[in-house]
Amino acid sequence: MESHLLRTAALVAGFAAVSAFAAPVAAAETGLPHFADGFGLTVTEQPTRVDGHPRTFTFAVRSDQVPAPSVLPGQVPGRHVVMVTLPAGYDGSTRYPVLYALHGNADLPNTQRNLDIAESATRSAPLITVQPNGGRSWYSNWVNPGALGTQNWENFHLGQLIPLIDATLRTIPARTGRAIAGHSMGGFGAVHYAEHRPDLFGYVGSFSGGLDLQNSEQRAAVAETALDPASGTPTTSVDAIFGPPVWPFDGIWNAQSPAQHVSSLRGMGVALYTGNGGDLTVDPLQAVVENRARETNLVTAANLTAEGIPFTFADYGDGSAWAPGCTGKHNQQPCLQADLDHFVGLLMQALQHP
């Protein structure tokens, strides 16, 4: 019974299901950038163009901050794949802004769906998109990683990957040329990172993110993430990421909750996107997932309003007026495509770009 409840609670926070890998061609091609080791990263695979997609490539690194992440089927232990989509006409001389796009739990950066959404949203935008591996990380430095060893995901992404991208690609290496966004767990990660490092980002977006760690359903979802082999193996413990989830030992949960710490987003562009689940009798699990994720966004929106911080809130209900095929459920590609399309439009109005 307890296992069933935890699994249901995990769905309440909502995560992306694993799609098919975006398959790269067999060998690296000319005309792609060369990544050198540095910033604590060892490059294990140079850029390889994704077959049939000249704007997108993958590369892989090892990180001393997350040397042994848990893995999903198809992932190589210890290796972090990163997928990059370049703007059309990228010539190695013009500088472009960068969007860091964070995937949800039980998803991978280099799925066909993530590729399709990024390429479609940026087809006409002068924007580099970087999608890193996030594992079951909750985009945080874990406090009790146990047998998995060091799991400092925030250090990896913010202290290592961003400098590597800026050192290798023609980016605008300033907050005026950098944004972050994510779906579900990745929406949590985007706001979490932006709050911790407002010096890095000019805009943040959350797509159906679970943003309130003071919410008991959200805590159960994080616990399920740690315990469920469907989120990666080996599994870990409920206190691995943020410590014990119960009072009076839950201080880290409270301290790391994005919904309650929005003040550092002042001066940054902020956008939240969520549906309400639509018809709860149709695909009820994904409907409930989105409905409960929306509650954490409402708390965040209320706190942003109380702080006097301007933000965009696309609270699109059953999705009927948001995008064709979007019915307000969690993890629906038409909804996510519309979210990113809209967010990229905001970025082109706010970020420095050619």
Taking all Cα atoms into account, the compactness measure Rg is 19 Å
Spans of 5+ residues with little confidence (pLDDT < 50)? 1-28
Oligomer: single chain
The H/E string reads HEEEEHEHEHEHHEHEH
Mean pLDDT: 93
How many structural domains in the coordinates?
1
Q: Please state how the strands of the largest beta sheet are arranged side by side.
A: 1-2-3-5-4-6-7-8-9
Distance between the termini: 56 Å
SSE layout:
Layout: H1 2-13, E1 41-49, E2 56-63, E3 80-85, E4 98-102, H2 112-121, E5 128-132, H3 153-168, E6 178-183, H4 185-196, E7 203-207, H5 216-227, H6 251-255, E8 269-274, H7 284-306, E9 312-315, H8 333-350
Parallel strand pairs: 4-5, 4-6, 6-7, 7-8, 8-9
Antiparallel strand pairs: 1-2, 2-3, 3-5
Helix pairs in contact: 1-5, 1-7, 2-8
